[in-house]
């Protein structure tokens, strides 16, 4: 029987290999889309082989789904860090909105992956039990905040968490996904650092103004 330390080291090696594959695959799928991405290219840019990628994930489609699962799970995990139970409802909403703003800006590959999966009508996302279970984490914090805001008489009675999620998501995704066409037409870079805080504050204002209208 192998020593416990050897078993632990092998497990760490597996985790590192899997993480390395996912990191490279994320960039490959984000850059080239599901159809254009090649497992051979992913293997060439990692410390593993095509055979090992199939061993860990089963195939190209399963690898792509794993990339989506990791990407969506990351933002859901961040949302859970906001203290929705104790912050003032307005402050909690601004934190949730700002968190999404920061995450999307720091992870442009996530925006590309979402766009690519929409091109495929979410057919891969629909196959994942993990992704199917992320609706509650996405809306759970918003639901708590809206309930508290309504109970305090601060928010409109018909406030719906999915509507608020849509407002936040659409603003943040548009800013990244349409950056280049927007700049080409209007001459303004939506990722200009000089306007970053302006846009971040604008997002919070949009959410609060809607809920208090």
Overall form: globular
* CATH architecture annotation name of the largest domain: Orthogonal Bundle
The whole-number mean of residue pLDDT values reads: 94
Which regions have little confidence, pLDDT < 50, spanning 5+ residues?
A: none
Task: Give the CATH superfamily of the largest domain.
Answer: Tetracycline Repressor, domain 2
Taken together, the total number of domains comes to: 2
CATH topology annotation of the largest domain: Tetracycline Repressor, domain 2
Briefly, what CATH class of the largest domain?
Mainly Alpha
Helix-strand makeup class: mainly alpha
The proportion of strand residues reads under 5%
Proportion in helices: over 70%
* Sheet of most strands: none
Multimeric state: single chain
What distance separates the N and C termini?
68 Å
Count of helix runs:
11
Order of helices and strands: HHHHHHHHHHH
Indicate the topology:
Elements: H1 4-36, H2 39-44, H3 50-57, H4 60-79, H5 89-106, H6 108-119, H7 129-132, H8 135-151, H9 161-177, H10 179-186, H11 196-212
Explain how this protein is built.
- It is globular, with a radius of gyration of 20 Å.
- It folds into two domains: 1-58, Homeodomain-like (Arc Repressor Mutant, subunit A), CATH 1.10.10; 67-212, Tetracycline Repressor, domain 2 (Orthogonal Bundle), CATH 1.10.357.
- The model has no long low-confidence stretch (mean pLDDT 94).
- The protein contains eleven helices and no strands.
- The chain has 213 residues and is mainly α.
- The longest helix has 33 residues, at 4-36.
- The protein has helices at 4-36, 39-44, 50-57, 60-79, 89-106, 108-119, 129-132, 135-151, 161-177, 179-186, 196-212.
- Keywords: DNA-binding.
